[in-house]
Predict the 3D structure of the following.
Amino acid sequence: MRRLIRLSLATGAVTALGGGLLAVAETGSAAVPGSALTAPESALAQAATSGPTPAPTPTPAAAKPDFNGDGRADIAVGNPNATVSGQTRAGQITAFYGGADGLSFSRRQVITQNTPGMADEAEEDDRFGYAHAVGDFNADGYSDLAVSAPHEGGFVGRVFVLWGSPGGLTGGTAISRPSTTVSSWGYTMTAGDFDGDGRSDLVATGHSNVVFTYDNLSPSPGSRSVSSRLLPISTALGGVEGLTAGDANGDGRDDLIARGMSAANEVRDTHFWVPGTAAGLAVPPHTRTLPAGESVAIGDINGDSYGDIVVGLPWDDSDNPGVPGHYPPGTVPGGKVTVRYGSASGPSYYGRTITQGTDNIPSSASPNGDRFGYSLSLGDINGDGKADLAIGTPGKDINGVEGTGAVTVLYGTAAGPNTSFKIQQYAQSSPGVPGDDEPGDGFGDSLGLTDVNGDGKADLTIRAPQKGQNSLTTLRSNGQSITTVGATVFNPHALGVTQQLPGTNS
């Protein structure tokens, strides 16, 4: 099975990974961040875009990505491969606004660098929408969206912040790279309150092992401050490859999870925990090495008020484990998911590993290539105060159809993810799910658990990157579990913006 192209949907404390196509992520110090989506206009309205209905004034510090403050989570969908005004791979990002009926094409905003209010213009290969992060950067109660164009200016890169308002996202404040030593600025980003001041900070980097934290962001450039941290990550493969935020030690400040090749042993996809402090992110030696993997999520699965860290290692034994610059040791056929529980001192060494060979987990006759754990999302589906876990297996064969993909849902308990009962698995051929299994669809390539209809329970949004050029399927919570009743599917390509399929000449 071929390696899939990473284009992610993130939720809760999970932020967009590089190349993110669908992102729904706002982090904060909440113990159960899954009520929020991670991985983008009143003044930014484009042709064929109706935009959201203006919402009333929101309550401060909304705990979910709510660009218009109506109390329902919104989703940002980035497509860095989109063709804009004839410019190939210029990129775009679209905000889908939640409503009582969930997500709808009638409430959407398409944003490109040509959109009025943006401090730039669309150019070939800019890759606008490659990475994005959601947070309330100016502390006005509306979620804001940071989005990058890492190939802008010939791999110089640029980051833009779109500001939330009653009418949705507006503006387009530009943040240029902080150092000429950083290329592809904005390659990966996340947002969180790392110093505990009640205001979201933006952490971003490019091809570098240095991350930059922006505090006090606002439409006025003079108000911002920036600090940097050197991480124990090698630059041989470009530096930091992924960033995620969440509170693992329960101190009310978000911590940073950074992914990259370890500078100590050159093992790829190593994760490092960097705690937040009153002065912002800590510096080495106050970091901690975590299990290696391709995906990560943070949320309180066992209800003890500490964020638990879930890492997905989707590669197989055949993926050359342990070779420097390649995949890490510990791979198993079909992939695995590791949970490290949070504590007052941060992520503990105690945890558990889940594979398709774990009792009661739907298995495969030939698991190699399934990519179990390729995507992860945490959210509270049943409102019990514990985060539930969705696991993507986009390479899984279903009913003899190769690589069509599936998603497994495990519910949180005081003992962690429940693998004894109430386990759910969905594919496009599941009763009630719109569509059908097709070869190579990659259903489950990206996931988002967030409350898109405002009922207080997390709903599940699933991306299939090769299904009609990036289809999105939403399965709602019925208050107790995920259900296919009222399931919807829609296709960002229907927005009428020509795009290049992910993985082709990208």
